[in-house]
Amino acid sequence: MESFGYGSSQAFRSTDIQNDLSRQLDALRQRSPENFSTPVYVLITANDTVSGQIEERFREAEKCYSGKRIILIPYLLGNHHWTGILIEWNSMGQIERSQFIDPVTGSDCIPDELQKNFIEIFAKNILRSKTMLKHEDRTKSATLTIANLLNAVQNSDLHQSSSQQNFSSFSTDEGLSAWHKDQNCPTTSCEGNQMNLGELEKRLSSGLAKFKISDINILSDRIRRSKDRIEEYRATERIEDAEKEMNYLREYEMLAELAEKINRAKLNVSDLDTANLEKQLADNLAKMQISDVQVLSERIARSEKRIEEYREEGRSDDVEKEQKLLSFAVRF
User: Fold this and answer.
1) CA-based angle 78:128:164, to the nearest 5?
2) Which of 134, 68, 127, 62 is nearest to 99 (CA)?
3) CB within 8 A of 172, min separation 6: which ones?
4) DSSP label at 140?
5) How many CA atoms lie within 13 A of 85 on its CB side?
6) Per-residue pLDDT, 283
7) What distance in Å separates the CA atoms of residue 62 and residue 122, rounded to the nearest whole number?
8) Which residues of the chain have pLDDT under 50?
9) What pLDDT does 78 receive?
10) How many CA atoms lie within 13 A of 40 on its CB side?
11) How far apart are CA 53 and CA 83, in angstroms?
């Protein structure tokens, strides 16, 4: 992946960066097409001082494009302070990344009005601050914003969006890497399924214990309560509380998905056990030249009758032989 930085010799830019960003994006796409499997679109700059402008960009991003995509929006806060907004959708039309990238050192908070506008357009999503290249001199913010957005676009194909959100211990990159490995590596043997099942159950138990959940059935109630809180926080413009609660909600939902995966794995193990038993029965019926299970029960009944007859006639050798044949048949 080609990485971008800033050069101290670059002139201060007071003009709109949208054209420069588009031009550099096109050049990079031609040099490294492998880093651009997701379509990327650059929208016209939004100015913080112009009322309604950023809402228009958000609506355009949502309504004028479709499918898997990345939208870049240059955002000017005023006084030559450039920032960038990146929004990424998956193929299902769900937002996977929504990032506000401010390159000025010491300026780390998302403006309240910007967050409010984002939530109004994209319900149940929150704009998150993303730390990338920074400098204390805001006159370098134009150059740094272009570099940060280009780097963020390329990172899209290298990392799953969930690993790029800075969640707590259950959602670390290492944990998610293991999670995605489990998701993408189906097991073909019964023994392998049981081994993976044990690991998944340990992970679920650890996650439930972390949130003091004693019963998996309680999880759905936690999810519902968390969603209700988020709606209440947003309604009262408690953005930080809503963002914090979103982190809890995502972890609850991951646990719910993990529980569902365990249920599917148990069904797979059960199916494999049943299939193995059926195959074993079919093989042994073939050895005994029996075409139907019903025939097997009839043969067992006849064998038991012969044993009784042999005993009455004192034919101990035949009794022993018939008992061996009967024990073989009964096993299957």
Assistant:
1) 130
2) 127
3) none
4) G
5) 27
6) 64
7) 8
8) 4, 6-14, 158-195, 330, 332
9) 80
10) 27
11) 15
* Alpha-carbon dihedral sign for residues 172, 174, 175, 176: positive
Q: β-strand 128-129 against 95-101: which pairing, if any?
A: parallel
Q: Give the pair of three-digit tokens for residue 285.
A: 């019926």
Q: Which amino acid is at 154?
A: Q
Q: How far apart are CA 330 and CA 307, in angstroms?
A: 14
Question: Distance (Å, rounded) from C-alpha 151 to C-alpha 130?
Answer: 12
pTM: 0.48
Q: Are 37 and 157 in contact (CB under 8 A)?
A: yes
Q: Which residues contact 148 (CB under 8 A, 6 or more apart)?
A: 4, 84, 101, 103, 132, 133
The pLDDT value recorded for residue 328 is: 58
| Average pLDDT value over all residues in the chain | 77
pLDDT of residue 26: 93
Contact 103, 132 (CB under 8 A): yes
DSSP E strand boundaries for 25-81: 40-42, 46-47, 69-76
Sole residue written with tokens 């679109």: 41
Q: Find the DSSP H helices in 105-237.
A: 112-121, 141-155, 161-164, 173-184, 190-210, 217-235
CA atoms within 13 A on the CB side of 114: 24
Residue-level length of the chain: 332
Task: Give me the residue label for tokens 């195959």.
Answer: 279
* Cα–Cα distances in angstroms (integers) from residue 24 to residues 143, 146, 313, in the given order: 11, 8, 101
pLDDT of residue 324: 74
Specify the residue for token string 């707590």: 168
Pairing label, strands 82-89, 69-76? antiparallel
